[in-house]
Amino acid sequence: MTESVIQLQSVSKIFVTDEVETHALSNIHLDIRKGEYVSISGPSGCGKSTLLAILGLLDSPSEGTYVLNGHAVHGLKTGERARIRNREIGFIFQAFNLIGDLTVYENVELPLTYRGMPGDERKRRVSEALERVDMAHRIKHFPAQLSGGQQQRVAVARALAGNPAIMLADEPTGNLDSANGEQVMDLLKELHKAGATICMVTHDPRYAGFADRTVHLFDGKLVPEGSHGNAQTA
Amino acid sequence: MGTAKLTIRSLLRAPVFTAVVILTIALGVGANTAIFTVIESVLLKPLPYPKPEELVGVWHTAPGIALKDLNQSAANHFTYLDENRTFQEIGVWAQLSASVTGKADPEQVRTLNVSHGTLAAIQARPLLGRVFTEHDDQPGSPRTVVLTYGYWQRRFGGERSVIGRRILVDGAAREVIGVLPEAFRFLDSKPQILVPFQFDRGKVLLGSFSQMGVARLKPGVTLEQANADVARMLPMVLEKFPAPPGFNAKLFETARIGPNVRPLEKDLLGDVGGVLWVLMGTVGLVLLIACANVANLLLVRAEARQRELAVRAALGAGAQRIAKDLLTESVILGVAGGTLGLGLAYAGVKALVWLAPAGLPRIDEISIDVPVILFAFAISTLCGILFGLIPVWRYTGRRMDGALRLGSRSFSQGRERHRVQSALVVIQVAMALVLVVGSGLMLRTFWAIQQVPPGFTQPEHVQTLRVSFPEAEVKENERVTRMQEQMLQNLLRIPGVTAASLSSSLTMSGYTNNDLVFAEDHTYALNELPPIRRFKFISPGYFSTLGRKLLAGRDMTWTDVYNRSPVGLISENFAREYWGSPQSAIGKRIREGPKDAWREIIGVVGDERDDGANKKAPAVVYWPLFLDKIFGQTDYAARGASFAIRTDRAGTEGLLKEIQQAIWSVNRNLPLAEVSTLEEIYDKSMARVSFTLVMLGIAGAMALLLGVVGIYGVISYSVTQSKREIGIRSALGATQGQLVSMFVRRGLKLAAAGAALGLVAAAIASRFMESLLFEVQPLDPLTYAGVAGIVVGIAALASYVPSRQVSGTSPLEALRAE
Ligand SMILES: Nc1ncnc2c1ncn2[C@@H]1O[C@H](COP(=O)(O)OP(=O)(O)O)[C@@H](O)[C@H]1O
Ligand SMILES: [Mg+2]
User: Fold this and answer.
1) Is there a single domain that holds both residue B723 and residue B652?
2) Of A231, B316, B431, B590, which alpha carbon lies 20 to 30 A from B338's?
């Protein structure tokens, strides 16, 4: 049996705004193993992004425990969380989120510089990552000079350059046309084949099928395996 | 048109923005209007006389004795009076003082001594009675006096019956023949009474340039013609009047006296224009910085309104229409700021007048008038247009249609707006640096001056005052000296007084006597004149009272004084110039004129900054109070005496009472004048420098403040506009510290670019300050390095504070899909 990369126990998330409590997540148990490709699906507003944010240490659970790579991370301070995000997690966002003022190369290099990695090591990793997404020929370009699909490939390179324990993707194809979307999905599949652990949010049923396993969310709760057909129609 | 009304409504909806903009403009316009008020009143307004363009100062040059400005002598005056072809009226004048005695306590008053031509030239009219006529100038005519309005009010309660009364001036009765109106001004003199010169033509000798000349040109006569006329008359002077005993007229030829007739304003303004124009330039820069700040704020606002503008463009508003709206807004802001600025200027002018150095002429004429108000509105409108054009240029025309499409941001904010904003900040920092370098140079000047030993120590413990001994009161010279010694003895008995002495001219007082001084062991070529030296008459103990070192030889004694021993002391610089060292000057002999006695140098003392702490120390000769065979007179006593009294009690009322008693117990009729501590005299001589320092300091501080606001604003804005970028970076693992330092670096880059530009600009601009500096180079490296360091340091702080706002941005921002 392979080891767990992610273990969530009874995780809940409650947002309080203007006296209104939103129970975005309730009592979530989730286990992701090394090398797994998990997709999270569910209707809009069901808590997918919230769950991903908690997995990615962008947000912390209101209740419950989170063990990442064998370490409890739910109670960590901001600085420590930034460090873990930087080393253990690779993000791929729906809106690509490349930094407009930086070149393709610099964008990919960015998380490595935050790690204080020496220059030649960074250079090797950046080139490698860009080669894997087939963008090595565009290192001097600025994001505005690239198509959406190309931008997302650069974002994937940025996520994998740091060799994270897990890659988290929030609707990575949401801003892409279907041809480009498929390309990105193919890329993720390839990375998975090469050993990457991936957790992807999507509400596109076509792409959910790329994953080993699909987890369904409905109104902040996990839908038991087998009954997801109901949730999907919502 | 409703445009203005709509604009005002929209401005009121953004009260913080509107208030910050108006306040910034008000500061800039206020400072400029205040300085302009001074310039307008002091430099630009014509003199308050009819046809002021006809009025001239009658001066000379004397390159032969290295004098650029030589004033007027009686001999020259009479020659011009008789022979000129270009003057309607010509007169001489001098500011002196006299004692007025009578029923009340004796009082020392400021007098304006004039020949009748002086008042005729400025066309002075009396309020009561009459002013002087030619008859009053004649020796032997009844003695007369004219009162100024203030003195008449104070001493005579404004009684009209004063005309015809007699008052005792320097012990002699004079008939009051007139009172001048309240508005009477004569240059910057503030006399209490006016008395006529009564030169005896038969006794006038060549030389003795101790009056000032004034004249009114005939209509249509130019300065060149007047100067040519004086050049024509100069040789006649030598023919008409004899040389003083021991000199021959040839000696006067070597002085190479030439004409120097110039506008009368020059006599009033001196070199004050230099300081004022430097200040005007300074506050002008402050205004530009303020404009840059406002332009930045408007850019941010236009950015926020970009969509609104785009929608309006889409609805068919032309570029011109939108430009007009934007400009209307900025001009309304400019004028509102200008109005508030005018209010600030009013307060500023009050403060300026209060701060202004004693040397600032026409200070009572400084007021905000129509030209000043026009100036304020002109510059605020101009500023409104200037800073309004930047957003217009950015957000109108072809760029408008892009705004709608740009609505969705798929990667962080456009770089172009940042470039404009950044450029504005760079320029601001550069200008602020120029101003701070200016204040830095002034500060170094101030400091350098304070390092120079002025010729005395602990001036706060020296009480000074002046007493005159008019001949009408004390006839014989020796009696004057005896009385002076008696007074010093009395003063020394006052508890707490450790030393007391007197001098014909204390220090930095402006009472200067200068004349040729010959040395026995120096040969002068035929027709060669020795350099002019300053001389003072002093009592024994003068140097120890002031705290000045005796470098060689000895001080004089009362025995020297009463024996009229032919002795004297000189200053170190004189000793070194002629004999190489203080020691070797001892025993050498000097004299003032070929007929005077040779006098032996018995001591050499340290130099004295007699023209002010920031001026070169003149070479000074110190003679005893009482001596004979000088100026061709049998004996001579210093009848104008400044007392110096060293005591911890200097400046206290109690001390003054005791001093008064000590002096009046010797003679009840001698008024005490010019009571002040030596420190006050020193501060007064520093007034111009202090004033410039304070003004440049204020401007520099304002510039820095505005620069800080500029950097703060840009960084703060860029933090709020970069929320998404911060979120992304944070999601990728950037720590708070890394994010903060990213923005601080942004601020520092701007500051460094501004500082580099500013250093170059300062190197150019500081040349204009050269005349204001003292022992500091305009390119003083310490100042430049220090100021650059300070500016960059402050910029770092101004960037750091808003950069900490990054903590308000959650990494969750990164997840927000657009
Ligand atoms: N920061 C927040 N504050 C308040 N409510 C939030 C916040 N983030 C998400 N929510 C709420 O939580 C629920 C889940 O949102 P989200 O996780 O974004 O859903 P999904 O990604 O599945 O569309 C929604 O009801 C949303 O309104
Ligand atoms: Mg979502």
Assistant:
1) no
2) B431
In tens, the pLDDT along B319-376 reads 778 788 888 889 999 999 999 999 999 998 888 888 776 667 888 888 889 999 999 9
What domain range is A164 assigned to? 35-60+76-223
Of B269, B289, B319, the domain-final residue: B269
Q: Domain total for chain A?
A: 1
Are residues B573 and B720 both part of a single domain?
A: no
Among candidates B410, B734, B814 on the partner chain, residue whose Cβ is nearest the Cβ of A82: B734
Looking at CA atoms only, how far is residue B309 from chain A in angstroms? 24
Helices (H), B396-469: 400-405, 415-451
Chain A with chain B: Cβ pairs closer than 8 A: 86
Cβ atoms of B115 and B93 closer than 8 Å: yes
pLDDT tens-digit profile of B98-120? Answer: 888 876 778 888 899 999 999 99
Q: Which two tokens stand for residue B662?
A: 């000590």
In a domain, B387, yes or no: no
Is residue A16 in some structural domain? Answer: no
Statement to judge: residues B185 and B249 lie in one domain: yes
A113 burial (CB, 10 Å; 0-12 / 13-18 / 19+) is middle
Does residue B487 sit in the same domain as residue B447? no
Domain shared by B97 and B70, yes or no? yes
In a domain, B19, yes or no: no
**In a domain? residue A174:** yes
To test ligand 1's pocket by mutation, which of A15, A18, A26, A59 has the most ligand atoms within 8 angstroms of CB?
A15
pTM above 0.90, yes or no: no
Residue B677 included in any domain: no
Same structural domain, B475 and B434? no
Last residue of a domain, one of B247, B269, B291: B269
Share of chain A above pLDDT 70, in %: 95
Identify whether A12 is part of a domain.
no
Q: Which of residues 405-434 of B touch A (CB under 8 A)?
A: 410-415
Query: Across the interface, do A58 and B811 touch by the CB < 8 Å criterion?
Result: yes
Indicate if B446 and B476 belong to the same structural domain.
no
**Which of B32 and B414 is assigned the larger pLDDT?**
B32
Interface test with B, best of A52, A57, A58, A167 (most B CBs within 10 A): A58
pLDDT tens digits, A27-55:
999 999 999 999 999 888 999 999 999 99
Distance CA(B90)–CA(B205), nearest Å, equals 19
Q: Near ion ligand 2, which residues have CB within 5 Å?
A: A 49
Is the Cβ atom of A17 under 6 angstroms away from ligand 1?
yes
Answer whether A180 contacts ligand 1 (Cβ < 6 A): no
Check pLDDT > 70 for residue B178. yes
Give the confidence band of B598 by pLDDT, cuts at 50, 70, 90.
very high
- For residue A53, which ligand has an atom nearest its CA? 1
Q: Which residues of A touch B (CB under 8 A)?
A: 49, 52-53, 56, 58-59, 78-79, 82-83, 85-87, 89, 91, 93-101, 110-111, 114-115, 143-144, 151, 158, 170-171, 174-175
Taking CA atoms, what residue in A is nearest to B738?
A114
B32 within a domain of the structure (yes/no): no
> Has residue A127 been placed in a domain?
yes
Q: By three-state DSSP, how is residue A95 classified?
A: coil
Ligand 1 atom 26 nearest Cα: A45
Going from the Cα of A171 to the center of ligand 2, the distance in angstroms, rounded, reads 7
Tell me the ligand closest to A13's alpha carbon: 1
Q: Name B317's Cβ contacts closer than 8 Å, sequence gap at least 6.
A: none
Do B647 and B740 lie in one domain? The reply is: no
Report the alpha-carbon distance of residue B76 to residue B98 in Å, rounded.
Answer: 26
DSSP annotation string for B272-340: HHHHHHHHHHHHHHHHHHHHHHHHHHHHHHHHHTHHHHHHHHHTT--HHHHHHHHHHHHHHHHHHHHHH
Residue tagged 């250093």 (tokens): B759
What is the three-class DSSP state of A155?
Answer: helix
How many structural domains is chain B composed of?
3
Q: Whose CA is nearest to atom 24 of ligand 1?
A: A45
Domain at A138, CATH number? 3.40.50.300
Residue B800 sits in which domain range?
415-452+685-818
